[in-house]
Amino acid sequence: MELVSTPLLPEGYKVPASRNEDPSRRLRRLLASKPYVFGPGVYDPLGAELVMYHGFDAVYFSGYSFAIGHLGTTDMDLYSSVEIADGARRTVSALRKFQLTMAIGDPEKGVAPIHLEIPPVVVDMDAGYGNLFNVQRTVDLYVRAGVAAAHLEDQVMPKRCGHIAGKALISASEFVGKLKMMRSAADDLGHKDFVIIARTDGISATDGRQSSSVARSASAFRTRASRSTIRHRSNGSTRRIPSPGTSSASWGSGSYSSRSPCSTRRVTECPSCYVA
Length: 276
Hints:
This protein is an alpha/beta fold. It is built from seven helices and 14 strands.
């Protein structure tokens, strides 16, 4: 691990050089270099610090978890883009501060410094919180908050958690329009590496269909379905692997699932995706 000095610490103390790396670029580098990039789901800065302390590659700022932790209710499109963006901003800021704290240790107690990498933060963007202009504003908030990636889903608003019945979808063309707006908004801010994930409820929603044009419009494509499999696309080919459980988010070499690593291989209700 390469260490560098920072003006925020006393002379002689250092932090990992990745502190100065763009979070989206770091996420893309991790995806390109590792078989799987695991990111447990959190809803607040403290949870993210625990993920960072235990050495996970990424943090997934979960909309469902945020709804429960922030409002005490299930994910029924009740919070706004500003609320979740502020939660993500505070989380990114906390991770940077936590890295500094751990890099000092506790000299008086003889506790040595611990050099922790800052994991890139992936944030739920639900259905975009409105029309194209809402999508543009949300991407602006996320990028300025230091978020590495965001995923958008294709439900009719008000949306509901993918595990709840009665979902309906917008048209594929409207969804692609929102995805293109995400890309354009991030690029306009100079963040061409910002990772965009397209998520569909097409398997489990009423009258839902998936469109190949959606997958071509995003950095990643994620499905939420009941007892499904992950469709993992790599180098133009597609293969199917079992879809795991729902406790956290796990990025990997063109795949994403909602769980932390464990020995369980049962196919359960979960979101999943493949990276374009």
